Amino acid sequence: MEETLELIPVTFEKVLSTRTYTCVVLVTDKHRFAIYTDPASGKAMQAYLSSTTRARPDTHDLLNQIFRGLDIKLKQIVINDLEDTIYFGRLFIEQQIGDVLHIVEIDARPSDCITLALQHKVPVFCSTSVLEKTIPYAE
């Protein structure tokens, strides 16, 4: 029997950065939780959120150029698993080729997913099974 994955919309609340890590705070109507990642991911998010221009393109800019060049649309992000404090994410992209609509699901770090979601203004979802495992974030 196939398990049904219930998805809950998640919104981005803030990014807190130090020299050694970045904390991304996400919220639902009933949960607030933090995903910790490397400082480079935090810098990419902060640069996007503050509309800072960078001297050179970063990896997310490269992905965006590839998306544009291949007429790929980022549709949504899903945080789908949590194992030993490590979160897992999925990018959902689509590409129309002739009469065929291709939808592809790609494994990705949640920090990359969130950065791309912010840039493309697409929804972020979290599975209920992940939310049940999260440690609530307290300010």
CATH class: Alpha Beta
Order of helices and strands: EEEHHEEEHEH
Q: What is the distance, rounded to the nearest whole angstrom, between the alpha carbons of the first and last residues?
A: 41 Å
Helix/strand class: alpha+beta
Rg: 16 Å
Instruction: Show unreliable segments.
Output: none
CATH fold name? Bifunctional nuclease domain
Tell me how many strands there are. Answer: 7
Strand percentage lies at 35-45%
Average pLDDT taken over every residue: 89
Helix count equals: 4
Approximate shape: globular
The CATH H-level homologous superfamily = Bifunctional nuclease domain
Overall CATH architecture = Roll
Count of separate structural domains: 1
Reading side by side through the largest sheet, how are the strands ordered? 3-2-1-7-4-5-6
Portion in helices: 25-40%
Description:
With 139 residues, this protein is of the alpha+beta class. The chain has a single domain, classed as Bifunctional nuclease domain (Roll), CATH 3.10.690. The protein contains four helices and seven strands, in the order E-E-E-H-H-E-E-E-H-E-H. It has helices at 39-49, 59-69, 110-120, 128-133; strands spanning 7-17, 22-27, 32-37, 72-83, 86-97, 100-108, 124-127. Strands 3-2-1-7-4-5-6 form a seven-stranded mixed beta sheet. It is globular and about 50 Å long.
How would you summarize what this structure contains?
This protein has 139 residues and is an alpha+beta fold. The protein has one domain: Bifunctional nuclease domain, CATH 3.10.690.10.
